[in-house]
Amino acid sequence: MAVDLTLSPATIRMLVQKARAAAAANDGGYETGNDHEIEFDNESLEDTHAHDGLAEEESDDLSAEELLELIEDLNVDEAAELVALVWIGRGDYDAEELDQAIEEARDRALRSTAKYLIGMPLFADHLEAGLEALDL
Fold it and tell me: Among 29, 61, 78, 125, which is disulfide-ready with 25 (CB 3.0 to 4.6 Å)?
């Protein structure tokens, strides 16, 4: 099936990588597989935390912010194609229905496409599956 998208497959793959990096950053400490139950003992319940009045610094991971900006910078056609690819990858549309999916995505674009896509737990997986469905 010949597909002519405004977005290049290389750009879409880069977005998949960025989405995976952002998802990994958000998962933080869950790689151990524990349920993250916290047990307190008497020593940990004592207030021994010294605070110097300055905000505690955390290492900033800009992956999600960068992904958000990249998607927000897409034009209307590119954003509609990206959403359509995700829908195809998610199984909402078949690969043969690409044009219909793009048109539907264009019609539904009322809010932030970036927030919509990044809010999907399996965004990267769906996007990658959409690429595969279109043989890109």
Answer: 61
